Amino acid sequence: MNPKLRHVLSARDFTREFIEGIIASAAVMEKALVEKTVLPNHAGRVISTFFFERSTRTRISFEDAAHLLGAQVIPCENAKESSSVGKGESYEDTFRVLGGYPLDAIICRSDKSNLGELARFSQVPIISAGDGGGEHPTQALLDLYTIWKEIGRLDELCVLLHGDLQSRPVRSLAIALSSFERNMSIFVGPEKLQLEKETMEFFFLSRRMEVRTPFVPPVLDLRLKLWEEVDVVYLTRFQDERKVISPEEYAVARRDFFFSPDKLGKMQKHARVLHPLPKRDDEVDPALTPEFDHRIAWFRQAHNGVPVRMALLHWVFTGEFYNPPLW
Amino acid sequence: MNPKLRHVLSARDFTREFIEGIIASAAVMEKALVEKTVLPNHAGRVISTFFFERSTRTRISFEDAAHLLGAQVIPCENAKESSSVGKGESYEDTFRVLGGYPLDAIICRSDKSNLGELARFSQVPIISAGDGGGEHPTQALLDLYTIWKEIGRLDELCVLLHGDLQSRPVRSLAIALSSFERNMSIFVGPEKLQLEKETMEFFFLSRRMEVRTPFVPPVLDLRLKLWEEVDVVYLTRFQDERKVISPEEYAVARRDFFFSPDKLGKMQKHARVLHPLPKRDDEVDPALTPEFDHRIAWFRQAHNGVPVRMALLHWVFTGEFYNPPLW
Amino acid sequence: MNPKLRHVLSARDFTREFIEGIIASAAVMEKALVEKTVLPNHAGRVISTFFFERSTRTRISFEDAAHLLGAQVIPCENAKESSSVGKGESYEDTFRVLGGYPLDAIICRSDKSNLGELARFSQVPIISAGDGGGEHPTQALLDLYTIWKEIGRLDELCVLLHGDLQSRPVRSLAIALSSFERNMSIFVGPEKLQLEKETMEFFFLSRRMEVRTPFVPPVLDLRLKLWEEVDVVYLTRFQDERKVISPEEYAVARRDFFFSPDKLGKMQKHARVLHPLPKRDDEVDPALTPEFDHRIAWFRQAHNGVPVRMALLHWVFTGEFYNPPLW
User: Fold this and answer.
1) Domain presence at residue B4
2) Of the candidates A60, A72, A241, which has its C-beta nearest B76's C-beta?
3) Is A58 a catalytic residue?
4) Is the CB of B286 less than 8 angstroms away from the CB of C90?
5) Is this prediction's ipTM beyond 0.90?
6) Is the residue at B6 inside a domain?
7) DSSP 8-state assignment for residue A195
8) Which of A172, A286, B273, C80 is the most buried (most CB within 10 A)?
9) A229, burial (CB in 10 Å: exposed 0-12, middle 13-18, buried 19+)
């Protein structure tokens, strides 16, 4: 692989320095957006959003980020159906072709956990926008940016990951958190939807991050004591479409892990509730809005996607952060 | 709602002054397009065309308008399937997220009559590109622009609305016409496809516009006398997909309200036939083209969509018309 | 038809001078892309990629080409489903509307061989991106550019066209080759998938190109002698979706016309294997990559699509080649 190619494929590649650099750049960019001052100008650059699975929210925030930097975008939001993969072409061939066009980055959402392997065939930087049962590294960056903005630090956090623990955002966030110091991740979800052993061992063996998974149902009593202690609750959607458990079990999981105002009520004032969205009304009480309680941070979190992806695109294009770290 | 937000949601919000301002701007823009002279430069602005229902014609004319002004576009032409709504997300959440991104306008086609309600959650101006069984306000603007260009006035018009009267273009055009003086709208269509009572009462009670709905089948004899008197015939497509009547009744309606050369033949020389398109060969005689008879204005009408939407985008971006009214 | 309109609809319209002009322009553009030097600036121009059939590869290379020249793009990759054609609109009406918008070119992929007819209704240049069972003229341009780059000449070539001979790329390439001198095309494919008589007669009667079609199965012995002589082998995908033969016959054809390393082994050192892609593993041995053997040129061929389409767009926009011919 060309060492100059700045692929963004896994949160495991994110050092503390990298994450801080992106966060600092994003903060500068967000300020410039609000104050309508000058932003880096990447006119002449072209990216493609090449999505084997649809994901409007992620695609739009990447495209907005690119346009705000002056870059052009070639959208492809249904690559699986529309590309030659449907005619029997291998993913490898698709990447050999696409990765040889004059492009400055390919933002790729895959339906398989294959982006690391495929990126080897590309002469263009690949940015993962989520891959199969794997990772969603840019979601982790915007989650960390949100925690940093809302709580003020990325060390010494107690983070409760709650719901479908096999989701990409949970995996990538927990990995990214482990690049910082003295964080504790607590995994609370159905027994059959726990994070896989390999990733848990990564935390223990490679990162020395404290991890707890004591809370599988029926543990409602135990769990109740948690809300008072955590800094961050990270809710996730139950991904029925992955069919890991039966429809009936998903319905039970939604009921067991429903997030309601009384749980929020136990939380500390400085704590925040994040959710990668979309959420469903039978997973999260629809009364929980930012107007209802400022600790509900998920829409602010979603909006942070644009400056964070601007910062990341700038880094992929230039190899530099937009500004020296702010702290 | 932020009072500075210039949403465009209903023809009911269009004052005479607003419509005249848009028409004057569109005329200046159209002239600049033809003569390849300077246009307003909105480089740096980004809009999204966010369509819950596909509508290629409307989407392309909005995107062309945006690009001709130098703005960038994030297309999403199949938002229902591709967005998180398919994963159980509420429309409200979709608008809270999208409406918090750094965008200069969201052009939204909805499959429900809900844009007024949803716009409350957006910090970005929402421009309706048609909503459910509701309105299509920008279609009304280009229809009025077409009538103004072709006939020279927007007052004292006799307008025959013909076909499926529950269509959005009919509703929005009739409402927009009622902002001018001494116009008469005549609704000719199947008894089960008449405009709803609430809108008809709006004309009587709020706008003092003269409205006639005497012509339901079998009234072919009566109807024949009409063609000689009208200034504008506004044909519409029978929208089978809405399933208001049975397939057999749609077939009968198409036959009863077929627009043929002999009807055109009775019309005055200055009169014009408009159609929001698409049209079908079993609704309108395919021999009727602009080359066949200059009174066939529907392709010129469609082409007016671009300068009118340029004028509207400019107003949404700046709060100003592009030029003082021409008359 | 407006004589100034530079439609690109058929390889039959390509003179030797035109092809050489495009190739020379593409070479200059490719050099500028690699060296990151100046390219023609078509800021302010807007094109639409209007595809009645999906074709991600072709669409993306056209959009990349447009963006690299500074032009803007309105994508429509699923026009059949999303446009009004689905509501019963005629293709003619679609082209009358689209072809009257302020656009600088419409890149159209059609599912019918109707682009020549439809272009008459457009005031905007139409560039075919493949039409039904007809042609794919821009594929022919990039194929010739590839042959010119890889072999150094476009005259006196022996070209073996191999596989599904009714495919658009085969037809357009053979026609384009006939504009040059002393080329021989050899068609090797299943008896039921031979190029139609009308095109073969065109070669004999209008172009004096030597054409041979002696090789239908079972002729494996004869065919074996070919590989040593040819300059170019042009493989094609068997297009099951066209259903010209039965699924069983397609399976047999794939086996009979499988391209394997031993066939490549017989070829001359300067010879090249092209393929318009996508290819399938049961048509072409997956071991055949450019790393395996430099004569495998199909990925370089695909990548040539961008500079060639840049050269073509520049010509459509301006009527001029970007540079005087290089030779």
Assistant:
1) no
2) A60
3) yes
4) yes
5) yes
6) no
7) P
8) A172
9) middle
